[in-house]
Amino acid sequence: MVCIGLWIALAGKAQSLIITDSVCTQLPITNYSIDTKGNIYLALEGGQITKYSPTLDSLQTYAPQQTGSVSLLEAGNGFYLFAFYDFFQEYLLLNRFLSNPTRTSLAPVGTTYIDLATQSQDNSLWLIENGGLRLLKYNPIYKTIEVETPLNTILAHTNNHFTYIKEYQNRLYLLDPESGIYVFDNLGNYVKTINIRTQKISFYKEQVVYVQELKLVLQHLYSEHLATLDLPKPIDGALMYRKNSYLLSSTCVFKAQ
After folding, report:
1. How far apart are CA 32 and CA 49, in angstroms?
2. Is the Cα torsion angle 91, 96, 101, 102 positive or negative in sign?
3. Ordered structural domains, the chain, with CATH
């Protein structure tokens, strides 16, 4: 269902967020995600990952033996955390306590280089190959490519720099800050492009959430509805859970309502 209450609350006049709490880190935040219960995960420079409660209490921390920044962090599975390292061409799985780490190389895929990787809803992997050459769906159990979509006829330009990929509500969303969000179905077929310019996106119910200048934008995925909230300060990205907005800077998370 459409988040009716939120659209009504935002309609007709500008709304401003007010910061109610915050937590800061000693090292820069390189990536972040939120799970289905509102827990927030921060990946820091060097690869440390910390889990915070919706009230920003620190719960668990994972400290890797091999340091390296996380290129993509995904907690939407609800059971475990996925982290992709483009430098190592590996991905990491952690349970909800950030323990029992399993690191897996993507070398068996047989591609030259993987720019981005994330999990599909059936526990395969979506991969973006070598500057956007191909979109691949890879089965890590059988080590087979299940879907292959050439992207050269879809992308707006050849010099692409993808920053985020996520399967959400049976669609795949691929973000290029310079040309927008490319949308595919769960078989890898191109559907459309959402024309926005932003560095990072997140999802809440049936909305894509992103920052544009000093506005937090909530754009409905299946209609033209769009709502904005005034931000109290410049931020890099945002996550949402119930009545809370979590605003992220390079070293802090601000809880706002």
Report:
1. 9
2. negative
3. 28-209 (2.120.10.30)
